Amino acid sequence: MTCTGLLTVCLIRPPSPRPPVPVAGPSGHALFQDVFRRADKNDDGKLSFEEFQNYFADGVLSPRELQELFSGIDGHSTE
Length: 79
What we know:
Blueprint: H1 3-12, H2 28-39, H3 49-56, H4 63-73
Helix pairs in contact: 3-4
Organism: Pteropus alecto (Black flying fox)
GO cellular component, one term: Golgi cis cisterna
GO biological process, one term: regulation of amyloid precursor protein biosynthetic process
């Protein structure tokens, strides 16, 4: 699965009615942090839309869809 696909599944998937069963490997939070660190090219601890777009632009989502996804997860409403 591409990074964009994984991120989309994690963020858009409806909540599970039961708590997820733990699986071996990194937790969702650890995985998200790893993806964030890789995408944050200037290591400022912030993910600009440009960094987000460069990291996730693999042709799965259109530029508009990337903007909508970024806006939906941008807790500070910044670019």
